[in-house]
Amino acid sequence: MCGIVGYIGRRQAYPVLIKGLKRLEYRGYDSAGVALITETKGLEVYKTKGKVADLEAYVEDKDVTGTVGIAHTRWATHGEPNATNAHPHISCSGNLALIHNGIIENYTVLKEALQRHGVAFKSSTDTEVLVQLIDYIQQHLKTDLLTAVRLALRQVIGAYAIAILDRNEPNQIIAARKSSPLVVGIGDDEFFLGSDASPIIEYTDKVVYLDDNDIAVLRRGAKEAEFVNFDNEKIEHDVKTVDLDLGQIEKGGYPHFMLKEIFEQPKSLRDCMRGRVNVEANNVVLSAVIDYRKELINARRYIIVACGTSWHASLIGKQLLESICQIPVEVEYASEFRYSNPVIDSRDVVIAISQSGETADTLAAIQLAKERGAFIFGICNAIGSSIPRATNTGCYIHVGPEIGVASTKAFTGQVTVLTMLALALGKARGTINNTDYVNLVRELDSIPQKMEKVLEQNDHVRDISRVFTYARNFLYLGRGYNYPVALEGALKLKEISYIHAEGYPAAEMKHGPIALIDDEMPVVVVATQNPLYDKLMSNIQEIKARNGRVIAIVTEGDEKVKALADEFVELPQTIECLEPLLSTIPLQLLAYHIAVQKGKNVDQPRNLAKSVTVE
Ligand code: F6R
Q1: What is the 3-state secondary structure (H, E, C) of 446-473?
Q2: pTM recorded for the entire structure
């Protein structure tokens, strides 16, 4: 939610900032803005409603010179998306410009206090209170910017990543973080700022990830960035090297990031399994399970917390862990868990799953579980993000940056890590026999190749999508391991095509949803050949008896379901618990093609943002 970029150094700042905003646009695209200390006029702020491209058009005839600046792309929380509410916000004195990602919870109290002292507000955002408060302190205490920022932030409750420019101190940017991500890039005589490393990696691979309550001071000409806390005590940070190349964050010839990421899945799963799944030795090795064997194998119960697509992966994880490891597993929405006063203690392991590693609800759930003594295991994608840093241990999914707002390759990466975790723990606990273990290791290793076969049917799925673009509602059905796949298929469709869709366990259909079925209702049924196949056949018969239109996901060579279905997509045979890794792909493609047919912005669906860093 909201992307932040900053630059100070020898280059012209504007091109660096605009390119950076484009890389962060997945975080929000309601409005965009930039503040520069220009060569002729001093502090200049340009902002507009809409996307980064709208900002570029808006500044075409403006002075965008200068070697220091900050920029922002917004996902609106407080205040409608318009130019006034766009960032940067300027203080009353006109001296300061500030950008912010997060939510200031006590902004009403602070705003009213400042208004009583004559401060006039222009926007309806929570953010503006920050810049006015810092300005007020600076004016009244006659302090420098850093002191004013330190004093102001002591009074602020909420989540923030901020960056500030001061027209009177033009050779520095000050930035700070609490519960919202912020990365400083360290170049030669230049510094960069980003909500993640993607705007930075083109210029340097040296970064510092800010911790909560850190303030960064980036001074022109300084060899090093300075970091202090609210008491002005120096903080030492290790400079980390980011291992990310530009190709990973560009479209690489695909029309959309989402399609690129769907097609990347065979490769991303190979990356995910590299060094972990060893078919020669018939083994799965996860360092976290070696290092924390005792905590993980002796737990009385696992609780998985996650949101959205990651929650769907968690439902598959529950089935894997329970069947392979014989450990009771609960799956909770992180947003509900954090307010549910859960019964949890040091005998429990909490697994937090998050692609971005920044989801506010998941972070809060971790905090609560930690306070109650649970051991925390993270499954994340974004390296160095907040969730992996808040956990005791964990596994990265290593699928590379996911930029399309609709999650695809992260889902299959999460399911793959959960499978590896179940195998490693099952072996350590002695709950899986050797034959099953070896078969599963081998089959998991062959999944990327089988995914390639599924992806070969892309044109076929596109043809199917043309038939169903008219639909206003969809049902998705699955059973067992494919029930979460049905939920995920429905989520993909609704978020990018805005068609209403529901996922159900297939047998539940007759308890209500069957009333919806008529000759206009497409029903996607995952009906692969596994022990539940005959049951699913009956469910399909029930739909056809009511003239529903069935799109079936079947196992290669299946003739029975194919004969009943209106449309079908075939999947290679695999072991039942690995089916989601294949069956989810046609559903991703179907959602993608329907959204494209309907002319929707697939990578930037309305009202959504990639990383939900607010409650
Ligand atoms: C759906 C989607 C969201 C995320 C959810 C959790 O396509 O992307 O539902 O899965 O916001 O995000 P993470 O995994 O980053 O915690």
Answers
A1: HHHHHHHHHHCCHHHHHHHHHHHCCCCE
A2: 0.85
